[in-house]
């Protein structure tokens, strides 16, 4: 009976670790979105996460909410610098997210200022 119990516990641990590794390392989708960076802030009560919003049009429905992992200091600094400007964001989407990583399933991997659209907007 003890052998069976040990095997059952080991199987549960292996499946749980496999699930968390799959959710964390396997992206569901990847892509690029561009628009006006309207919000970027650090929020949370117990675990602070970086969250932002990108406006892709005139209406409220065309907003892209995203998260940034804590270790990406360059991306965090770039997003703070480009707030209020047109940006192009490369991202990946996870199947699910963990509360300590962010509120959304979309995580930013690269930030570029979209200077071409910025100059068109100013005209």
From TrEMBL:
Top-level taxonomic group: Bacteria
Keywords associated with the record: Membrane, Transmembrane, Transmembrane helix
Keyword Membrane: yes
Sequence intervals crossing the membrane: 6-26
Protein name per its UniProtKB record: 6-phosphogluconate dehydrogenase
Source organism per UniProt: Aestuariibaculum marinum
